[in-house]
Design goal:
alpha+beta; 3 strands
Length: about 90
Amino acid sequence: MKIKTKKKTYISAPITNGKTKQTICDLLCKAIQQTAAGDDLVALRYDPITEIVHADFRDHYDLRQINVGADSGWAMIKDIVNHIDIG
């Protein structure tokens, strides 16, 4: 007996150029800044050459770097949130 299941299909805009990934960074940064834990986040800067996101904080001297080279948009968001370790 075979069980048929439907696979979820996700259709999204291609995340291949730096502008799209930077847009995700800009919007995510604004969302994080609205929280008490992330109000000292200054910027999320995407470098299209290295495919690294740099997280800049106002009150910290350390710079967080997140590799998002092979990430989809959603994976990129999850990686950034997991690696900046706020709160």
